[in-house]
Every structure is written in structure tokens, then in C-alpha cells.
Amino acid sequence: MDRRKGRILKSTVFVLLAVLAAAGIVYAVGGRRSSDASDNENNGDAATVDLSAPSPADESGDDETGQAPPDMNTENAEDQNLTESGLKYSIGPYSDEGYTLEKVVVLSRHNIRSPLTGPRSSIYSLTPYSWCEWSSPPAELSVKGGTLETEMGQYFRRWLEAEGLFEENYRPAEDEVRIYANSWQRTVATARFFSTGLLPVSNMGVEHHKGINNVDSVFYPRFTFFSSAYREDALAEMEGLYYLAMPDLSCDYRLLTDVLDMEDSDAYQKGSFTGFSMDVPTFNLSKGNEPTVNGSLKTACQLSDALILQYYEEPDRYSEISGRDLTGEEWEAIGEIKDIYGDVLFTSPLVAVNIAHPLLVEMDNELNEGGRRFSFICGHDSNLASVLAALEAEDYRLPEAIEKRTPIGSKIVVSCWKREDGEEYMSLDLVYQTAAQMRNVEILDESNPPGIYGIRLKGLEMDENGLYRATDVKGRFEEKIGEYDSLKDAYK
Questions:
Q1: Strand, coil or helix: 129
Q2: Which of 120, 185, 391, 444 has CA atoms 20 to 30 A from the CA of 2?
Q3: What SS3 state is found at 79?
Q4: Section 254-278 average pLDDT
Q5: Active-site residue list
Q6: How does strand 292-293 pair with strand 283-284?
Q7: Distance CA 442, CA 72 (A)
Q8: Is residue 261 pLDDT above 80, yes or no?
Q9: Separation between Cα atoms, residue 418 and residue 40, nearest integer Å
């Protein structure tokens, strides 16, 4: 079969999947909703919404098909090592008895920032409502974001001290700890606040390789390998993900239009915006650049991003200016737009193994760096999404979060453990502050841990203690790093 026929076959399969999706089998990440989110009654209170509690339609724990909701693992729900929503009580193994923590590597998303665009951008003309006054310039870490990240650093410090990797008031020797960030202000500042909480008496510096607000190539999710044949197949995968997301995305668009009263906006009244389109958007793929998209998906993502960031920064702002309270389900539907945007652009197999390659190499080097105890690498949601996709993480939806994939401030945590018999193991967890913890700026400790969600890797066996053999995880990194080189042979 030649490549063009192969692409036609792929596109046909994706269209078939889209048809099935329209019949009720919808976007795998977004999951099923029993009704349009825009049809929900506005009887929720944004100030008190509990994202961990079931909605009235979900009180049985099952959706209308009789299956568990997508962010509830039925096996995990019965596991005494997990909370009812499927979260772990601590990073690493369910029980650390007989295990010693040897090393930790963290890939983090920056914490709360202001929107990427300023007051003259389109998001200000697409709603009659005014956005909040941000505590930082566009795209920079907010004051609240710094506070939350310091708290997360303090949680990690107490955990590492309890596990014996750090002694109290630890001052690392040279090369024992690495704090490395992309050179954007929000990532450098996040790393600085995290290290302040982690190492309060060490005055640890933040390593970054460019001037402030210049991108470091390690964190730039761009195509470093490219060919016309590769572009065709990568584009087919991205379009396939979009087709699968269309049913949920259509509901989300209607909700967003209603929530922001977009039909009363200047842009709508002047005709420069006429509503969101479900047409397949234009994806832009070229060598040396990151994948981008034009059209409704991009616009909706910008609005979703700003609205969610505003919720984190000033949780009561929307209800104060609109007179309307959104339910937890509605906030999650708004967040789903961002999740779909990130999944479509950064997580298809051919794209992920390409754009995540520099960070896979960086993380693999840290895992194998002798003498290193702790590594903190701070980047962006696109970095976490592409790394997880490249490593073939099983599908998931994070409980007690608005963003179900890579929430603001979330972290991939790879912890390395040695058992008493000398066998080495690894745990992979997504660690994040829940929506309630961010809203209330809650102190994180053993009695109130952050969200800790165990990552399952396809094809690798996890033992009863929630651990993988270290050789298996390292082998997965080596395999996926090698797949990048294989692209050059497959797409000559």
C-alpha cells in the first residue's frame, strides 16, 4: 500500500469513528455527558462548588450507560489505597514499607498566569463582560500563582524529608539538586517559587539558558524532523482526534457562547464574529515550528483559557459581573475546550514522539545522572501533554479538577525506589492542586495532600504497590527516544 492510499484509509477510519461518535460514542477524553452542558440549570454556586461530588444525575456513580464516569476508575474506587475519586494518598508506592526513595524527577507546568494576550486582543471584544484586573502583565506568573507554587514546594519538602531523601533544612551539595526552567518569565518564576518552598535555606538558583521571555529549544514543542510524507500522516492523525472530539466540542461551544453572552459582544454586533464553526480547522505544520491551528478552536481555547485562569485568580469574578453561578459540570465543560485543543495539537502519536523528543532526552538524562537526588524541570502544558503521549500513557481524566489533562501547576513526578532486596522500581504520578485547593489557597500536607493520580503506561505491568520495574520505565524512555530516529527512516 503506498503512502497516499494509507492516508486515505486513515482518514476514512477517522470519519467512520466520527460518525460513531455522533451516534453517542464521543470524545474519549471528554467522556459522555447526559445532556448539553448549556442546558444545565444554574443552581450551582461557583463559590462553593465541589468538583469531587457527583452531580444530581450522577449520584449512583454511573452514567446513563451504566458505566462509571470517565474520571472514576471502578477498580481504583474499590482499592483501599485510593480515595473514592481515584486519587492516591501519597506520591510513590501505596506503601513505602521496605522501600527507600532514591531519586525524583519532576516535569512541571507553570502555575497561574495572566492570559497570553493583552487588553487589545480579541478576547476583550468577544464578550460584553470585563475581565478581572490581573496582578501581572500578560503571560506572566500571577501573585496567587507564586503563592500556590511555594505551597507545592513546601509539600514536596515535607514529603522528601519524611522519605529520608532530604534531611531537615537540607542544603544540597553541588549537582545533587537541579532546578531548570524554560526562559519565559512564568516558568522561571514558577521554578523560583517552588524552590523557595522546597529548599527554604539553600538560596537555590534557577537554571535557564536564554534571556527572559526567549524560548529554550528543549521546551519548544516544534517539529525538528519534517518531510511532506510525515506531514500527511501527522495531519491525518490530528484531524482524526478532532473528528472524535466534535460532539463534545459542539456542546462546549454552545455553553461558552452562552456563558460569555457573546451574541451581545461588540465583535458579534459588528459582524466580525458570527459564531463558532464545527468545520475542520486549518492545522499548520512546518519544520522548525510548533503545530498551530486557526479558526474557531483557537478562538474558543483563548476564551476558555482566560475564563478558567480568571476562576483560579478571582473565583467569584464571573458570578459578580454576570449574576450567574456556574455548576462544576459547566466549568469542566469550559475546561474541556482547552483539553481538546491540547490533545489535538500535541498528543497524536507521530506528533508527540517528535515534539517531545528534547524533553524525553532531558528527563532520561536526569534519571540516569549519578549523584542527582532531585530534578525540577519547568515548562508548559504542551510539554506535559506531549511527553505523556509519547510515553504511551493510558487515557485519563483527573478528578477534582477543571482541566482534566494538564491543569495549571501540574507535575509529572517520576520517583525512583529501591526495595530491601535491592530491586529498583519507579512510580509515575500526576500531582496537582485541586480546583478547591487553588480557589482557597489551601495549605498542603499529609492530611490535605494535592491531587495525586497514578499514571498507567500501556504495555507495562504495574505491581500491587503501584510501582513499575525501573528497567521497564527506562526501557520505555529509550524506546521512545529511539522512535524519533526511526521517523527519519520511515519518512525518507
A1: coil
A2: 391
A3: coil
A4: 96
A5: 110, 381
A6: antiparallel
A7: 24
A8: yes
A9: 50
Helix/strand/coil percentages in the chain, nearest 5: 40, 10, 45
User: Residue 140: which residues within 8 A CB-CB, separation 6 or more?
Assistant: 113, 114, 185, 186, 189
Comparing C-alpha atoms, which of 311, 306, 287 is closest to residue 488? 287
Name the one residue in this structure whose C-alpha cell is 527572559: 212
Kindly report, residue by residue over 275-300, the tens digit of the pLDDT: 999 998 999 999 999 999 999 999 99
Which letter does DSSP use for residue 89 in this model? S
Strands 99-109 and 374-379: parallel
pLDDT confidence band for 123 (50 / 70 / 90)? confident
The phi-psi region of residue 466 (left if phi > 0; otherwise alpha if psi is between -120 and 50; otherwise beta) is left
Where exactly are the structural domains of the chain?
A: 3-28+73-490
Strands 451-454 and 424-432, how do they pair? Answer: antiparallel
CA distances from 399 to 79, 235, 410 (A): 16, 31, 13
Nearest-angstrom CA–CA distance, 417 and 431: 18
pLDDT at 34 over 50: no
pLDDT digits (tens, 9 = 90+) for 43-97: 333 333 445 443 333 333 333 333 333 444 434 444 689 999 999 999 999 999 9
Coil vs helix vs strand at 293: strand
CB-based contacts of 326: which residues, under 8 Å, 6+ apart?
Answer: 42, 44, 46, 49, 259, 318, 319, 334
Q: What letter represents residue 354's amino acid?
A: N
**If we measure between CA atoms, which residue out of 372, 415, 370 comes closest to residue 160?**
415
Contact 1, 217 (CB under 8 A): no
Instruction: Residue 361: name the closest of 489, 234, 484, 209 by CA.
Output: 484
**Strand residues in 382-459 grouped as ranges (E):** 411-419, 424-432, 451-454
**pTM to 2 decimal places:** 0.86
Q: Which helix (H) or strand (E) holds 259?
A: helix 228-259
3-state secondary structure 168-232: CCCCCCCCCEEEEECCCHHHHHHHHHHHHHHCCCCCCCCECCCCCCCCCCCCCCCECCCCHHHHH
The CB density around residue 86, as the number of other CB atoms within 10 Å, is: 23
Grid cell digits, residue 427: 512510580
Amino acid present at 347: T
What's the rounded Cα separation, in Å, for the pair 466 and 262?
46
In this prediction, residue 64 carries a pLDDT of 34
C-alpha–C-alpha distance, residues 343 and 347, integer Å: 5
Please tell me the CATH code under which domain 3-28+73-490 is placed.
Answer: 3.40.50.1240
d(CA 346, CA 381): 10
